[in-house]
Amino acid sequence: MLLRLRGLNLSQPLPLFLRHPKTLNPTLRCLSSPSSSQSQTPVPSSEPAEWTDEIVYLDESGDVICSGRGLRPAEPGRDAHVLDGGLLRPIPRSAAASKLVELARRWRWGPDLDAHLDRLPFPPDPSLLSVALAALPAADPQPALSLFRWARRQPWFAPSDSTYALLLDRLFAAADFDAIQSLFDDILKAATFDDAEPSSTSFSSSLNLVVQFLCQASKLEISFSCFKKLRDAGFREFNTQTYNSLITLFLCKGLPFKAFEIYESMESSGCSLDASTYDLMVPALAKSGRLDAALRLFQEMKAKEGSCRPGLPIYVALVDSMGKAGRLDAAVGLYQELQSVGYRPSVTMYVSMIESLVKAGKLDAGLKLWNEMKGAGFRPNFGSYTMMVESHARSGRLETAASIFADMERSGFLPTPSTYACLIEMHTAVGQVDPAMRLYNSMTNAGLRPGLSTFTSLLSVLANKKLLDLAAKVLLEMKAVGFAVDVNASDVLMIYIKGGSTELALRWLRFMGSAGIRTNNFIIRQLFESCMKAGLYDSAQPLLETYVGSAAKVDLILYTSILAHLVRCKDEKNERAIMDIMSSAKHRAHEFMCGLFTGPEQRKKPVLSFVREFFQEIDYELEESAARYFVNVLLNYLVLMGQMNRARCVWKVAYENKLFPKAIVFDQHIAWSLDVRNLSVGAALVSVVHTLHRFRKRMLYYGVVPRRIKLVTGPTLKMVVAQMLQAVESPFEVSKVVLRAPGDSVLEWFKKPIVQQFLLNEIPSKADVLMHKLNVLFPSSAPEVRSLSPPKPLAVSR
C-alpha cells in the first residue's frame, strides 16, 4: 500500500499492518518523516497550523481506499497534542523522546539539526531532554552534546546536575577532554556556592566528576587547575573520591609533597578518610621520611572500626621506612605485629628487614632473619646474597661470608665483580693468601674482570708474604687486561724496600725491566739507599747511574749520605767502591772534596778561601738543613783523616754562614757558652777547639773575662769532650749535660803553653794515633747516632 499526498507523490512504503486509515497510529503519522513538513501550506497566524491537502490512501493496485484530512498540530494551549482528523490526541513522552533521539542521531550537529529541532510540533522540557540524552548511544557523545547545546539556548532549559554528570560520563568514555574542560567552564558559570549549606545549584556531583575524570586520565595540570578554580570560587563539597584521585595522581607523578598538600586540605575541609585514603597516605608519608605522621595515621586507621584494616602494603612500607631510618625497634615491632594479625611476611619485607639490620651492624639478627626467610620457603635473590656476603666480609666474618658465598654459587647465581673483590680484599687484609688466590682464580675462570682494587690488594699481600713469582704472574695478568701497572709494580718494589728485603727488591726491579715496566726516580733513590745500607755497593752504583741518567738531580743530602757510608767504612775495597759511587753522583760537593784534599799549588788558593767559595754557592733558603748535615758528616771525616786545620776552616765558614746560629752565645761579662748538642762527634770536637781559641783571644787580647764559661754537650757528647779536655788539664767540671768553669780559672788555663799549642792545632802531632782513637770514640759518623761508650784517655805529646 502506498501513501500519496494530493499534489505531492511520496514513494514511501508504509508498514504492512497499515491497511486502513483508522489503523494508522496518529502520533506516528504525525511524526513519521521530516519530509512531510514540506507538504504543509502556510496559514495565517490567527489560524491553527494544519495540512490543508487531502491524504489519499491507495492499495497495491493503485485504487483509492479512502481519503481524509491528516494529522496536524492542535490549537494553541494544547501544544502536547495533535489533531487526527477531528480527534484530539496526546503525544506520548516516549515518542517525543524518540523523535529527539532520531533527529540527534541523523543530523548529529550543526544548523540542520538546530532547524529540525526548532520545527518540532511539541515543545521539549528538561525532563524530556534528560530522557533523550540517556537514550543516545554512549559510544558517540557528539549527538548528545549537540542536543544539549541546542537545549541550553531554549527558554525552557534548566541546568541539572544529573544531566551534566551524564554528559561528563559520555565524554570521559570517548576521551574528549577538551569538551570536558569546556563543559566544566559552563558548569562553573551556572553554579552558585554557599558556604553555609549545600545548594541545589552547586552541581557538586558533576564538578567532582570533572576532577576525578581528569585525574584518571593523568591530566595533572588541568585537573589541579580545575580543583584550584573550584576552591578559589568557594566550592566546599569535594568528596573523598575526588581527594583520593588527586592524591593518587600526584603520587604517580612523583610529587609526594603536592599530595601531602591535598591531604592537608582534605583534613582541614572535614572530609572523611576512607580505606583508600589510608592506603595511599600511610606508605607515601613513610617513604618520604615523615615517619611520625605515618605512624599517627596508621594508629588512627587501626582505631577506626569497619573496613579500615591495615593491609600488607602498609606494613611493608612502614617496616621498610623504619628500618632504613634506623628505627629498628619500631620496625621489629611492626614486623611482629604483622605476623600477629595473620599476615605472612613477603620476601620484600624479609629483604628490607635483613638489609636494615645488616646496615645497622646487627649481623646476628640479620643472619637469624635470613635463616627464617629460607625456612619459610623464600629463595633469597641475587641482591640479598650479595649484601649478606659483602657485609659479613667487611665485618671480618670471613667464614660466614664464605659459607653464604658458596650457597650463592650453589643456587645458580653468578657473583658480581664487587662481591669477588670484597671477599678477596678482606682475605688479603688479614694475610690469607690461599683463599684470596682461590677466589681470584674462580673469578677469572668465570670470565669476570677483576678491578683495580682487587689487583692492588692481591699484589700487596703477595709482596708482604715475599711471594715474588706469584706477584709477577698477577701483575702480568693485570697488564694483559688493560690496566696501567707502573704504579702497582712500584708499590710492590716499595714494600720490599721498606721491609728490608733488598735482594728481593733488586730481583723485582730486574723483572720490571724485562717486562717493560718503568718505575720513578724516587723509588730508585730509595732502593739505592737500601743497597748502601746493606753494603751492596756493586748493585748500588748502577742504580745511581740510572738515577743520574734519567735527568734526576743528586742533591746535597744524597751525596752526604754516601759520604757518611765512607766515614763508617773500614774495608779498603769497599772504600774504593764508595768513592766510585761518590764520583758517579756528579755533585759539586765531590769536586769540593777532591779540591779540599789537594795541595795549595793545585788548588791555587788557600783552604779557607776555597771553603768560603764553596759555601757561597749554596742556596740556604732551600738547602740550609742539607748544608748543616753535610758539615756534620764532613767534619767527622776530616777529624778521622787527621785534617784538623781543614776541619777548623770548614767550621769557621759554616759558623760565618749562620748554619749554627745559636751555637756560641756571649752574655757580656756574665757567661759565655758553646752548645754542641746538635752536632756530630767530629763537629763537636772541632767546634770546642775552635771556640775555645776564640774565647782565649777575647780574654787575653781584650781583657774581657766572664764569670763563667759553659760547654753545653748533652748526655751523649759529654764524655767525648771531657776526655779531650782532660788531656790538657782543663778546669772544666763535668755535670749532667754541661761542662762549666769559672772565667778566672779558664783565663789562667789559657796562659799555659800547652793550651796554646793545643788550641793552635799543633798537638797531637801523630795523625795515625788521633785517627785510631777517634775511630774508637765514634764508630758511626751520622749526626743522629752518637757513641755512648766513654772513650779512653787521649795521649798527647808535648
UniProtKB/TrEMBL annotation:
Residues 674-750 form the Smr domain. It comes from the Eukaryota. The keyword Lipid biosynthesis does not apply. PROSITE patterns: PPR, SMR. It comes from Musa balbisiana (Banana). Residues 32-48 have a biased composition (Low complexity). This is Smr domain-containing protein. It holds the Pfam family PPR.
